[in-house]
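Researcher: Excuse me, tokens okay?
***
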Amino acid sequence: MAIQSSVDRPERKYRKSPKAPLLPQKHDDFESHEAGIDGASFSGAVFNLSTTAVGAGIMALPATVNQLGLIPGLIMILFVAWLTESSIDMILRFTRACKSATYSGLVADAFGGAGRTLLQVCIVVNNLGMLVVYMIIVGDVLSGTWLNGIHHSGLTEEWFGQQWWTTRVTLLLITTLFVFAPLISFKRVDSLRYTSALSVGLAVVFVAITAGVVIVKLIYGGIGVPRLLPEINDQASFWKLFTTFPVLVTAFICHHNIHPIENELKDTTQMKSIVRTSLSLCSIVYVATSVFGLLLFGDHILDDVLANFDGDLGIPYSSLLDDVVRVSYGIHLMLVFPIVFFSLRLNLDGLLFPYAIPIAFDNRRFFLVTAALMGFIFVGANSVPSIWDAFQFTGATAAVSVGFIFPAAVALRDTHGIATKNDRVASWLMIFLAVSSSTVAVSSDIYSIFSVDKGIGG
């Protein structure tokens, strides 16, 4: 019996509690595996958090704002950004109060093991959905897509024609093996700081090119007035407006990476400033993308605005600019992919192996979990027909839960008695908006599906 206890003791040193970080912190033994890392910097954390948020959501926002109308759409972007900052601030304050180092530990402190499990399920569903969207868009960029019965050519098809190796499945397989696989092999989130900085820079390049095209067309009088207010022709068009909220929510979701980023900081007191800087950067990029996208394409804007960049933009060197936009954003998504995958792997591992040693110390488990997730994402990206469908599904369910319902529920539960009156008001507002918009969005989706089926059958 004594021998068994002595054998177990070293293993228990690394056993996790619900409040422990899913990966070792910056001062743990794991540092020896990546020498030279002495805690994450302010700028590195800002880029990693911004990259978590500015992913595929930027591509769906112009169509979302077009549906809402320019003025209500921009107001909603800023409103959701404010709600996101409020929810993250709650997470940080209540996490410190319960002395936890993880989002799941915070929820476990308020609602026990069942709450922790439910949160991790939501994070896994949300991140899986997002990564499927990223891979779909990468496939659209490389091999093309069909939208509304119109074929939009991909880069390889334009450059090399239709070949066996330019098919969607083949190109996504090559991208998975030679781009995604190396990037998702890192075991610390701060290791991705340079790729995150590059990905944010490429998103800015996309905005800058779109703005430049709009300015040139304005000079020559080739820009129309965008839709300023929503068009409501019947009851269905009114309820359809609510399907935009999950897309807006998804665009700002970064809550699942708050703790991994904070745990690696040199100075954790900087986290609040990091969040504000990151959300401000995201808001500027989102507003600029929506405004210039609507000015450029108007009512012809597609669910994935990137698909609009395959034709004549009405200015010189249009074809070259199309290619630059699609290449830069395709690379951007490839660089966003690993940072979202990072928290997906951590939370799935925490869900399946809650009492195992941290996944960073178990190479076999690290490889198996990573391979299984990539296989699922690859199959999903070749099966889901539209990014709008994926955004509505994940945004209306898991994203609103991770971003708003769980932080609000923790604040209302207030197990440590630190919630303010503003916390409670904001929490009820988050829950009301999340539940009502999600219910309407899901109901609208179901109604649309049955309406289409009925139309086809008739």
Remarks:
- The longest strand covers residues 144-147.
- The two ends are 75 Å apart (CA to CA).
- Strands lie at 144-147, 150-153.
- The domain at 53-457 is CATH 1.20.1740.10 (Amino acid/polyamine transporter I).
